[in-house]
Amino acid sequence: MGQEPLANAEGESLTVEQAIENLRQTADIGLRYYAAWWLGRFRVAEPEAIEALVDALQDEGDRAPDGGYPLRRNAARALGKLGDRTVIPDLIRCLDCDDYYVREAAAQALESLGDPQAISALRGLLAGGVAAAAAVPDKPHLVQPYNAVLEALGTLGAVDAIEEIIPFLGHEVAQVQNAATRALYQLTGDGTYCDRLVERLQAPNLQLRRSAMMDLGAIGYLPAAGAIAATLAENSLKLIALQGVLESHLGQTGFPQARLTDEARQVLVLMDELL
Amino acid sequence: MGISRAGERLGVGATVAELIQAIETADSKGAMVVAVNCLAAAKDVAALPTLITVLGYNNPGAAVAAVEGLVALGHDAVPALLEQIDGYNYGARAWAIRAVALIGDPRALPVLLDTAKGDFALSVRRAAARGLGTIDWALLSAEQAASGQRDVLEVLTAATADLEWVVRYAAVAGLQNVAKALIDSHQKPPILLCLHQVFQHDETAAVQARARMALDALESPP
Protein backbone atom coordinates (compact mmCIF):
# COMPACT_ATOMS: atom_id res chain seq x y z
CA MET A 1 0.00 0.00 0.00
CA GLY A 2 2.98 2.32 0.54
CA GLN A 3 2.68 5.83 1.94
CA GLU A 4 -0.11 6.96 -0.37
CA PRO A 5 -2.84 8.36 1.91
CA LEU A 6 -6.28 6.87 1.30
CA ALA A 7 -9.10 9.36 1.71
CA ASN A 8 -12.58 8.43 2.78
CA ALA A 9 -15.66 10.11 1.38
CA GLU A 10 -15.41 12.85 4.04
CA GLY A 11 -11.93 13.70 2.84
CA GLU A 12 -10.08 12.49 5.93
CA SER A 13 -6.99 10.55 5.08
CA LEU A 14 -4.51 8.29 6.82
CA THR A 15 -1.67 6.10 5.70
CA VAL A 16 -1.73 2.40 6.51
CA GLU A 17 1.21 2.87 8.88
CA GLN A 18 -0.56 5.72 10.71
CA ALA A 19 -3.76 3.75 11.02
CA ILE A 20 -1.99 0.74 12.52
CA GLU A 21 -0.06 3.01 14.90
CA ASN A 22 -3.27 4.81 15.88
CA LEU A 23 -4.87 1.48 16.66
CA ARG A 24 -1.90 0.28 18.73
CA GLN A 25 -1.60 3.38 20.92
CA THR A 26 -3.94 3.60 23.88
CA ALA A 27 -3.86 7.30 24.80
CA ASP A 28 -6.57 8.49 22.40
CA ILE A 29 -9.67 6.26 22.36
CA GLY A 30 -11.23 8.15 19.44
CA LEU A 31 -8.20 7.62 17.21
CA ARG A 32 -8.22 3.89 17.96
CA TYR A 33 -11.90 3.56 17.20
CA TYR A 34 -11.56 5.40 13.89
CA ALA A 35 -8.43 3.44 12.92
CA ALA A 36 -10.21 0.10 13.41
CA TRP A 37 -13.02 1.23 11.12
CA TRP A 38 -10.56 2.63 8.61
CA LEU A 39 -8.51 -0.57 8.33
CA GLY A 40 -11.67 -2.49 7.50
CA ARG A 41 -12.98 0.15 5.12
CA PHE A 42 -9.80 0.15 3.08
CA ARG A 43 -9.34 -3.61 3.30
CA VAL A 44 -5.89 -3.38 4.88
CA ALA A 45 -5.14 -7.09 5.36
CA GLU A 46 -1.47 -6.74 6.28
CA PRO A 47 -0.32 -8.97 9.14
CA GLU A 48 0.37 -5.94 11.40
CA ALA A 49 -3.17 -4.69 10.89
CA ILE A 50 -4.71 -8.10 11.60
CA GLU A 51 -2.62 -8.47 14.74
CA ALA A 52 -3.56 -5.03 16.04
CA LEU A 53 -7.25 -5.70 15.34
CA VAL A 54 -7.13 -9.07 17.12
CA ASP A 55 -5.56 -7.31 20.12
CA ALA A 56 -8.37 -4.75 20.01
CA LEU A 57 -10.91 -7.59 20.45
CA GLN A 58 -9.64 -7.79 24.07
CA ASP A 59 -9.74 -4.03 24.68
CA GLU A 60 -10.81 -2.83 28.15
CA GLY A 61 -10.04 0.88 27.67
CA ASP A 62 -12.94 1.99 25.48
CA ARG A 63 -16.27 1.55 27.32
CA ALA A 64 -19.67 2.82 26.28
CA PRO A 65 -22.14 4.26 28.82
CA ASP A 66 -24.10 0.98 28.56
CA GLY A 67 -21.01 -1.03 29.54
CA GLY A 68 -20.31 -2.09 25.95
CA TYR A 69 -17.00 -2.20 24.12
CA PRO A 70 -17.10 0.14 21.10
CA LEU A 71 -13.55 -0.63 19.94
CA ARG A 72 -14.14 -4.38 20.11
CA ARG A 73 -17.23 -3.96 17.95
CA ASN A 74 -15.33 -2.02 15.30
CA ALA A 75 -12.41 -4.43 15.38
CA ALA A 76 -14.71 -7.42 14.87
CA ARG A 77 -16.44 -5.68 11.96
CA ALA A 78 -13.10 -4.84 10.36
CA LEU A 79 -11.83 -8.41 10.72
CA GLY A 80 -14.93 -9.61 8.91
CA LYS A 81 -13.89 -7.54 5.92
CA LEU A 82 -10.26 -8.59 5.73
CA GLY A 83 -10.77 -12.23 4.72
CA ASP A 84 -8.10 -13.66 7.04
CA ARG A 85 -9.50 -16.89 8.45
CA THR A 86 -6.80 -17.28 11.10
CA VAL A 87 -8.82 -14.87 13.27
CA ILE A 88 -11.87 -17.15 13.42
CA PRO A 89 -11.07 -18.57 16.88
CA ASP A 90 -10.71 -14.99 18.21
CA LEU A 91 -14.07 -14.02 16.73
CA ILE A 92 -15.69 -17.18 18.10
CA ARG A 93 -14.53 -16.15 21.59
CA CYS A 94 -16.33 -12.81 21.02
CA LEU A 95 -19.63 -14.71 20.75
CA ASP A 96 -19.40 -15.04 24.57
CA CYS A 97 -18.75 -11.33 25.18
CA ASP A 98 -21.11 -9.54 27.63
CA ASP A 99 -21.75 -6.87 25.00
CA TYR A 100 -24.61 -7.78 22.65
CA TYR A 101 -23.19 -5.60 19.89
CA VAL A 102 -19.80 -7.33 20.05
CA ARG A 103 -21.59 -10.68 19.69
CA GLU A 104 -23.57 -9.32 16.76
CA ALA A 105 -20.48 -7.91 15.02
CA ALA A 106 -18.64 -11.19 15.56
CA ALA A 107 -21.49 -13.26 14.11
CA GLN A 108 -21.60 -10.99 11.06
CA ALA A 109 -17.83 -11.18 10.66
CA LEU A 110 -17.90 -14.98 10.91
CA GLU A 111 -20.55 -15.00 8.19
CA SER A 112 -18.36 -12.85 5.93
CA LEU A 113 -15.32 -15.04 6.48
CA GLY A 114 -17.38 -17.98 5.26
CA ASP A 115 -15.74 -20.76 7.24
CA PRO A 116 -18.01 -23.58 8.48
CA GLN A 117 -15.86 -24.09 11.60
CA ALA A 118 -17.87 -21.25 13.17
CA ILE A 119 -21.16 -23.15 12.83
CA SER A 120 -21.25 -24.97 16.14
CA ALA A 121 -20.44 -21.86 18.17
CA LEU A 122 -23.12 -19.91 16.31
CA ARG A 123 -25.67 -22.66 16.91
CA GLY A 124 -24.87 -22.31 20.58
CA LEU A 125 -26.48 -18.84 20.57
CA LEU A 126 -29.80 -20.40 19.48
CA ALA A 127 -29.91 -22.47 22.69
CA GLY A 128 -33.39 -22.56 24.19
CA GLY A 129 -35.00 -21.89 20.80
CA VAL A 130 -37.73 -19.34 20.22
CA ALA A 131 -38.93 -19.59 23.82
CA ALA A 132 -35.60 -18.16 25.01
CA ALA A 133 -35.40 -15.57 22.23
CA ALA A 134 -36.99 -12.74 24.19
CA ALA A 135 -36.27 -9.04 24.41
CA VAL A 136 -33.90 -7.77 27.08
CA PRO A 137 -35.89 -5.45 29.40
CA ASP A 138 -35.11 -1.77 28.69
CA LYS A 139 -32.88 -2.61 25.72
CA PRO A 140 -33.68 -2.24 22.04
CA HIS A 141 -32.57 -5.80 21.30
CA LEU A 142 -33.24 -9.47 22.03
CA VAL A 143 -31.04 -11.59 24.32
CA GLN A 144 -28.94 -12.72 21.36
CA PRO A 145 -28.26 -11.25 17.90
CA TYR A 146 -30.61 -13.78 16.29
CA ASN A 147 -30.71 -12.03 12.93
CA ALA A 148 -26.95 -12.15 12.52
CA VAL A 149 -26.74 -15.72 13.82
CA LEU A 150 -29.48 -17.06 11.54
CA GLU A 151 -28.05 -15.25 8.54
CA ALA A 152 -24.58 -16.61 9.26
CA LEU A 153 -25.89 -20.17 9.60
CA GLY A 154 -27.58 -19.83 6.21
CA THR A 155 -24.50 -18.46 4.50
CA LEU A 156 -22.19 -21.00 6.11
CA GLY A 157 -24.34 -23.88 4.88
CA ALA A 158 -25.33 -25.20 8.31
CA VAL A 159 -27.80 -27.84 7.03
CA ASP A 160 -27.66 -29.67 10.36
CA ALA A 161 -29.22 -26.58 11.96
CA ILE A 162 -32.35 -26.55 9.74
CA GLU A 163 -34.58 -28.08 12.43
CA GLU A 164 -33.41 -25.48 14.95
CA ILE A 165 -33.98 -22.62 12.50
CA ILE A 166 -37.52 -23.52 11.33
CA PRO A 167 -39.23 -22.41 14.59
CA PHE A 168 -37.76 -18.91 14.15
CA LEU A 169 -40.08 -18.44 11.14
CA GLY A 170 -42.73 -17.87 13.82
CA HIS A 171 -40.70 -15.51 16.03
CA GLU A 172 -42.67 -12.42 17.01
CA VAL A 173 -40.10 -10.01 15.53
CA ALA A 174 -40.54 -9.69 11.75
CA GLN A 175 -36.84 -9.16 11.07
CA VAL A 176 -36.04 -12.42 12.85
CA GLN A 177 -38.65 -14.18 10.69
CA ASN A 178 -36.95 -12.68 7.62
CA ALA A 179 -33.53 -13.87 8.76
CA ALA A 180 -34.86 -17.41 9.31
CA THR A 181 -36.61 -17.34 5.93
CA ARG A 182 -33.46 -16.27 4.16
CA ALA A 183 -31.34 -18.89 5.92
CA LEU A 184 -33.82 -21.64 5.10
CA TYR A 185 -33.79 -20.67 1.43
CA GLN A 186 -30.01 -20.84 1.43
CA LEU A 187 -30.02 -24.20 3.20
CA THR A 188 -32.84 -25.84 1.22
CA GLY A 189 -32.96 -23.98 -2.12
CA ASP A 190 -36.75 -23.84 -1.74
CA GLY A 191 -37.97 -20.67 -3.51
CA THR A 192 -41.24 -20.49 -1.56
CA TYR A 193 -39.18 -19.10 1.31
CA CYS A 194 -38.13 -16.18 -0.93
CA ASP A 195 -41.71 -15.52 -1.95
CA ARG A 196 -42.44 -14.72 1.70
CA LEU A 197 -39.72 -12.07 1.55
CA VAL A 198 -41.08 -10.67 -1.73
CA GLU A 199 -44.49 -10.26 -0.03
CA ARG A 200 -42.76 -8.27 2.70
CA LEU A 201 -41.77 -5.68 0.09
CA GLN A 202 -45.42 -4.58 0.25
CA ALA A 203 -45.46 -4.22 4.04
CA PRO A 204 -46.73 -0.85 5.30
CA ASN A 205 -43.67 -0.47 7.53
CA LEU A 206 -40.57 1.01 5.84
CA GLN A 207 -38.14 -0.82 8.15
CA LEU A 208 -39.70 -4.15 7.16
CA ARG A 209 -39.54 -3.36 3.48
CA ARG A 210 -35.90 -2.37 3.83
CA SER A 211 -35.05 -5.48 5.75
CA ALA A 212 -36.77 -7.83 3.26
CA MET A 213 -35.12 -6.04 0.37
CA MET A 214 -31.64 -6.38 1.85
CA ASP A 215 -32.31 -10.06 2.61
CA LEU A 216 -33.34 -10.72 -1.00
CA GLY A 217 -30.20 -8.94 -2.17
CA ALA A 218 -28.00 -10.89 0.22
CA ILE A 219 -29.30 -14.25 -1.01
CA GLY A 220 -29.33 -13.12 -4.64
CA TYR A 221 -32.90 -14.09 -5.50
CA LEU A 222 -33.18 -13.07 -9.17
CA PRO A 223 -36.99 -13.30 -9.54
CA ALA A 224 -37.30 -10.51 -6.93
CA ALA A 225 -35.39 -7.90 -8.97
CA GLY A 226 -38.47 -6.13 -10.35
CA ALA A 227 -40.20 -6.10 -6.97
CA ILE A 228 -37.09 -4.65 -5.30
CA ALA A 229 -36.89 -1.85 -7.87
CA ALA A 230 -40.57 -1.03 -7.36
CA THR A 231 -40.79 -1.10 -3.55
CA LEU A 232 -41.11 2.18 -1.66
CA ALA A 233 -37.64 2.75 -0.22
CA GLU A 234 -34.45 4.69 -0.84
CA ASN A 235 -32.74 4.25 -4.20
CA SER A 236 -29.40 3.77 -2.43
CA LEU A 237 -30.67 0.66 -0.66
CA LYS A 238 -32.43 -0.66 -3.74
CA LEU A 239 -29.19 -0.38 -5.67
CA ILE A 240 -27.34 -2.38 -3.01
CA ALA A 241 -30.02 -5.07 -3.00
CA LEU A 242 -30.04 -5.29 -6.80
CA GLN A 243 -26.24 -5.45 -6.78
CA GLY A 244 -26.56 -8.54 -4.57
CA VAL A 245 -29.12 -10.13 -6.89
CA LEU A 246 -27.05 -9.33 -9.97
CA GLU A 247 -23.73 -10.52 -8.60
CA SER A 248 -25.14 -13.78 -7.37
CA HIS A 249 -26.55 -14.38 -10.88
CA LEU A 250 -23.25 -13.33 -12.50
CA GLY A 251 -21.43 -15.85 -10.31
CA GLN A 252 -23.79 -18.64 -11.32
CA THR A 253 -23.52 -17.86 -15.03
CA GLY A 254 -19.73 -17.73 -15.31
CA PHE A 255 -19.34 -13.98 -15.81
CA PRO A 256 -16.98 -12.35 -16.83
CA GLN A 257 -15.77 -15.23 -19.03
CA ALA A 258 -19.31 -15.88 -20.23
CA ARG A 259 -21.47 -13.23 -21.91
CA LEU A 260 -24.11 -11.27 -20.02
CA THR A 261 -27.43 -13.09 -19.86
CA ASP A 262 -30.72 -11.38 -20.69
CA GLU A 263 -31.62 -11.61 -17.01
CA ALA A 264 -28.44 -9.74 -16.03
CA ARG A 265 -29.21 -7.03 -18.60
CA GLN A 266 -32.70 -6.63 -17.18
CA VAL A 267 -31.30 -6.09 -13.68
CA LEU A 268 -28.77 -3.56 -15.04
CA VAL A 269 -31.58 -1.62 -16.72
CA LEU A 270 -33.48 -1.51 -13.41
CA MET A 271 -30.34 -0.25 -11.65
CA ASP A 272 -29.74 2.48 -14.25
CA GLU A 273 -33.17 3.92 -13.48
CA LEU A 274 -32.30 4.24 -9.80
CA LEU A 275 -29.03 6.16 -10.14
CA MET B 1 -56.61 11.99 9.27
CA GLY B 2 -54.64 14.71 7.52
CA ILE B 3 -54.13 12.65 4.39
CA SER B 4 -57.78 12.09 3.53
CA ARG B 5 -58.71 15.69 4.39
CA ALA B 6 -55.95 17.03 2.15
CA GLY B 7 -57.06 14.64 -0.59
CA GLU B 8 -60.65 15.88 -0.44
CA ARG B 9 -59.71 19.53 -0.33
CA LEU B 10 -57.39 19.16 -3.31
CA GLY B 11 -59.82 17.66 -5.76
CA VAL B 12 -59.77 18.35 -9.46
CA GLY B 13 -60.04 22.03 -10.22
CA ALA B 14 -58.03 23.40 -7.28
CA THR B 15 -55.99 26.48 -8.23
CA VAL B 16 -52.22 26.59 -7.86
CA ALA B 17 -52.66 29.07 -5.00
CA GLU B 18 -54.94 26.59 -3.22
CA LEU B 19 -52.46 23.78 -3.82
CA ILE B 20 -49.64 25.90 -2.37
CA GLN B 21 -51.82 26.83 0.57
CA ALA B 22 -52.39 23.10 1.21
CA ILE B 23 -48.62 22.54 1.46
CA GLU B 24 -48.21 25.45 3.86
CA THR B 25 -50.92 24.10 6.14
CA ALA B 26 -50.15 20.35 5.89
CA ASP B 27 -50.40 18.92 9.41
CA SER B 28 -48.41 15.67 8.96
CA LYS B 29 -45.63 14.21 6.84
CA GLY B 30 -48.17 12.13 4.92
CA ALA B 31 -50.44 15.12 4.26
CA MET B 32 -47.40 17.02 3.03
CA VAL B 33 -46.56 14.27 0.53
CA VAL B 34 -50.13 14.26 -0.81
CA ALA B 35 -50.17 18.06 -1.13
CA VAL B 36 -46.78 18.16 -2.90
CA ASN B 37 -47.90 15.44 -5.31
CA CYS B 38 -50.98 17.50 -6.20
CA LEU B 39 -48.92 20.64 -6.79
CA ALA B 40 -46.37 18.69 -8.85
CA ALA B 41 -49.16 17.27 -11.01
CA ALA B 42 -50.37 20.79 -11.84
CA LYS B 43 -47.21 21.35 -13.97
CA ASP B 44 -47.48 25.12 -13.50
CA VAL B 45 -44.43 27.41 -13.35
CA ALA B 46 -46.13 29.31 -10.55
CA ALA B 47 -45.47 26.23 -8.41
CA LEU B 48 -41.70 26.47 -8.93
CA PRO B 49 -40.64 28.42 -5.80
CA THR B 50 -42.78 26.22 -3.54
CA LEU B 51 -41.52 22.96 -5.06
CA ILE B 52 -37.94 24.16 -4.52
CA THR B 53 -38.68 25.17 -0.93
CA VAL B 54 -40.03 21.67 -0.26
CA LEU B 55 -36.62 20.18 -1.18
CA GLY B 56 -35.32 21.66 2.08
CA TYR B 57 -38.02 20.22 4.38
CA ASN B 58 -36.18 17.01 5.30
CA ASN B 59 -39.21 14.97 4.20
CA PRO B 60 -37.94 12.42 1.63
CA GLY B 61 -41.40 11.46 0.38
CA ALA B 62 -42.27 15.11 -0.26
CA ALA B 63 -38.87 15.74 -1.84
CA VAL B 64 -39.33 12.83 -4.28
CA ALA B 65 -42.70 14.28 -5.30
CA ALA B 66 -41.22 17.78 -5.65
CA VAL B 67 -38.35 16.48 -7.82
CA GLU B 68 -40.92 14.80 -10.06
CA GLY B 69 -42.80 18.07 -10.37
CA LEU B 70 -39.60 20.02 -11.12
CA VAL B 71 -38.50 17.49 -13.73
CA ALA B 72 -41.95 17.75 -15.35
CA LEU B 73 -41.44 21.53 -15.62
CA GLY B 74 -38.16 20.80 -17.40
CA HIS B 75 -35.99 23.65 -18.65
CA ASP B 76 -38.19 26.31 -16.99
CA ALA B 77 -37.10 24.96 -13.60
CA VAL B 78 -33.36 25.05 -14.25
CA PRO B 79 -32.36 28.66 -13.34
CA ALA B 80 -34.11 28.50 -9.97
CA LEU B 81 -32.67 25.04 -9.27
CA LEU B 82 -29.14 26.20 -10.03
CA GLU B 83 -29.63 29.07 -7.61
CA GLN B 84 -30.73 26.59 -4.95
CA ILE B 85 -27.63 24.45 -5.54
CA ASP B 86 -25.48 27.46 -4.64
CA GLY B 87 -27.33 27.78 -1.36
CA TYR B 88 -26.28 26.47 2.02
CA ASN B 89 -28.96 23.87 2.73
CA TYR B 90 -27.16 20.63 2.07
CA GLY B 91 -30.19 18.34 1.91
CA ALA B 92 -31.98 20.63 -0.53
CA ARG B 93 -28.81 20.82 -2.61
CA ALA B 94 -28.70 17.05 -3.07
CA TRP B 95 -32.30 16.93 -4.27
CA ALA B 96 -31.74 19.91 -6.59
CA ILE B 97 -28.75 18.11 -8.15
CA ARG B 98 -30.95 15.10 -8.72
CA ALA B 99 -33.59 17.26 -10.41
CA VAL B 100 -31.19 19.08 -12.75
CA ALA B 101 -29.52 15.77 -13.58
CA LEU B 102 -32.87 14.35 -14.66
CA ILE B 103 -33.77 17.44 -16.71
CA GLY B 104 -30.55 17.30 -18.77
CA ASP B 105 -30.28 21.06 -19.37
CA PRO B 106 -26.76 22.08 -20.49
CA ARG B 107 -26.84 25.10 -18.17
CA ALA B 108 -26.37 22.58 -15.36
CA LEU B 109 -23.15 21.28 -16.88
CA PRO B 110 -20.69 23.25 -14.67
CA VAL B 111 -22.44 22.29 -11.44
CA LEU B 112 -22.80 18.63 -12.48
CA LEU B 113 -19.10 18.50 -13.39
CA ASP B 114 -18.10 19.96 -10.01
CA THR B 115 -20.45 17.66 -8.14
CA ALA B 116 -19.41 14.47 -9.92
CA LYS B 117 -15.79 15.40 -9.22
CA GLY B 118 -15.89 16.34 -5.62
CA ASP B 119 -19.12 16.06 -3.63
CA PHE B 120 -18.68 14.20 -0.35
CA ALA B 121 -22.01 12.34 -0.55
CA LEU B 122 -21.83 9.31 -2.79
CA SER B 123 -25.53 9.47 -3.70
CA VAL B 124 -24.98 12.99 -5.03
CA ARG B 125 -21.84 12.02 -7.00
CA ARG B 126 -23.87 9.12 -8.39
CA ALA B 127 -26.76 11.36 -9.52
CA ALA B 128 -24.36 13.90 -11.05
CA ALA B 129 -22.48 11.20 -12.99
CA ARG B 130 -25.75 9.96 -14.37
CA GLY B 131 -26.80 13.52 -15.25
CA LEU B 132 -23.58 14.13 -17.18
CA GLY B 133 -24.61 11.29 -19.44
CA THR B 134 -28.03 12.70 -20.20
CA ILE B 135 -27.27 16.32 -21.09
CA ASP B 136 -29.33 17.47 -24.08
CA TRP B 137 -26.40 18.42 -26.36
CA ALA B 138 -28.70 19.57 -29.17
CA LEU B 139 -29.38 22.73 -27.14
CA LEU B 140 -25.77 23.87 -27.61
CA SER B 141 -23.80 24.89 -30.67
CA ALA B 142 -21.66 22.07 -32.11
CA GLU B 143 -18.55 23.82 -30.82
CA GLN B 144 -19.91 24.27 -27.29
CA ALA B 145 -21.18 20.71 -27.25
CA ALA B 146 -17.83 19.26 -28.34
CA SER B 147 -16.03 21.24 -25.64
CA GLY B 148 -18.62 20.28 -23.01
CA GLN B 149 -18.30 16.63 -23.95
CA ARG B 150 -14.52 16.79 -23.52
CA ASP B 151 -15.02 18.05 -19.95
CA VAL B 152 -17.67 15.41 -19.27
CA LEU B 153 -15.47 12.60 -20.55
CA GLU B 154 -12.58 13.76 -18.38
CA VAL B 155 -14.73 13.84 -15.24
CA LEU B 156 -16.55 10.56 -15.95
CA THR B 157 -13.32 8.74 -16.80
CA ALA B 158 -11.89 9.90 -13.46
CA ALA B 159 -15.11 8.83 -11.72
CA THR B 160 -14.61 5.24 -12.93
CA ALA B 161 -11.91 5.16 -10.21
CA ASP B 162 -14.19 6.44 -7.40
CA LEU B 163 -13.97 4.56 -4.11
CA GLU B 164 -17.71 3.81 -4.15
CA TRP B 165 -18.87 1.12 -6.55
CA VAL B 166 -22.17 2.84 -7.25
CA VAL B 167 -20.41 6.02 -8.40
CA ARG B 168 -18.18 3.96 -10.72
CA TYR B 169 -21.33 2.23 -11.97
CA ALA B 170 -23.03 5.58 -12.67
CA ALA B 171 -19.87 6.85 -14.41
CA VAL B 172 -19.91 3.84 -16.75
CA ALA B 173 -23.61 4.38 -17.52
CA GLY B 174 -22.83 8.06 -18.14
CA LEU B 175 -19.94 7.22 -20.47
CA GLN B 176 -22.17 4.94 -22.52
CA ASN B 177 -24.75 7.72 -22.91
CA VAL B 178 -22.19 10.37 -23.91
CA ALA B 179 -20.62 7.95 -26.40
CA LYS B 180 -23.98 7.67 -28.16
CA ALA B 181 -24.18 11.47 -28.59
CA LEU B 182 -20.56 12.29 -29.49
CA ILE B 183 -19.91 15.36 -31.62
CA ASP B 184 -16.23 14.49 -32.12
CA SER B 185 -15.88 10.84 -33.12
CA HIS B 186 -12.18 10.88 -32.11
CA GLN B 187 -13.39 10.72 -28.53
CA LYS B 188 -14.91 7.27 -28.94
CA PRO B 189 -11.71 5.17 -28.75
CA PRO B 190 -10.68 6.56 -25.33
CA ILE B 191 -14.18 5.82 -24.02
CA LEU B 192 -13.98 2.23 -25.24
CA LEU B 193 -10.52 1.88 -23.72
CA CYS B 194 -11.76 3.15 -20.36
CA LEU B 195 -14.76 0.79 -20.47
CA HIS B 196 -12.51 -2.16 -21.30
CA GLN B 197 -10.34 -1.33 -18.32
CA VAL B 198 -13.35 -1.20 -16.02
CA PHE B 199 -14.66 -4.46 -17.43
CA GLN B 200 -11.34 -6.20 -16.89
CA HIS B 201 -10.16 -4.70 -13.62
CA ASP B 202 -12.99 -3.31 -11.52
CA GLU B 203 -13.23 -5.05 -8.13
CA THR B 204 -17.05 -5.04 -8.19
CA ALA B 205 -18.77 -7.53 -10.49
CA ALA B 206 -21.83 -5.29 -10.93
CA VAL B 207 -19.59 -2.51 -12.29
CA GLN B 208 -17.80 -4.93 -14.60
CA ALA B 209 -21.18 -6.12 -15.86
CA ARG B 210 -22.32 -2.53 -16.52
CA ALA B 211 -19.13 -1.93 -18.51
CA ARG B 212 -19.75 -5.14 -20.47
CA MET B 213 -23.27 -3.98 -21.32
CA ALA B 214 -21.95 -0.58 -22.44
CA LEU B 215 -19.27 -2.22 -24.61
CA ASP B 216 -21.81 -4.60 -26.16
CA ALA B 217 -23.97 -1.61 -27.10
CA LEU B 218 -21.11 0.59 -28.39
CA GLU B 219 -19.07 -2.00 -30.24
CA SER B 220 -21.88 -3.76 -32.06
CA PRO B 221 -22.32 -2.58 -35.67
CA PRO B 222 -25.08 0.05 -35.91
From TrEMBL, chain A:
Any coiled-coil ranges, and where? Answer: none
One Pfam family cited in the UniProt record for this chain: HEAT_PBS
Record keywords: Lyase included? yes
- Species name: Shackletoniella antarctica
**Keyword Lyase on entry:** yes
SMART domains given in the database record: EZ_HEAT
Give the CC-aspect GO terms.
phycobilisome
| Keywords (A to Z) from UniProt | Antenna complex, Lyase, Phycobilisome
Q: Name one GO molecular function term.
A: oxidoreductase activity
Q: What does the record give as the organism's lineage?
A: Bacteria, Bacillati, Cyanobacteriota, Cyanophyceae, Oculatellales
Protein name (database record): Phycocyanobilin lyase
UniProtKB/TrEMBL annotation, chain B:
Record's SUPFAM superfamilies?
ARM repeat
User: Does the keyword Cell wall biogenesis/degradation feature in the UniProt annotation?
Assistant: no
Q: Which domain of life is it from?
A: Bacteria
Q: Which GO terms describe its molecular function?
A: lyase activity
Q: Which UniProt keywords apply?
A: Antenna complex, Lyase, Phycobilisome
Q: Name the InterPro entries for this protein.
A: ARM-like, ARM-type_fold
Pull one GO CC term from this UniProt entry: phycobilisome
Indicate what this protein is called per its UniProt record: Phycocyanobilin lyase
Q: Which organism is it from?
A: Shackletoniella antarctica
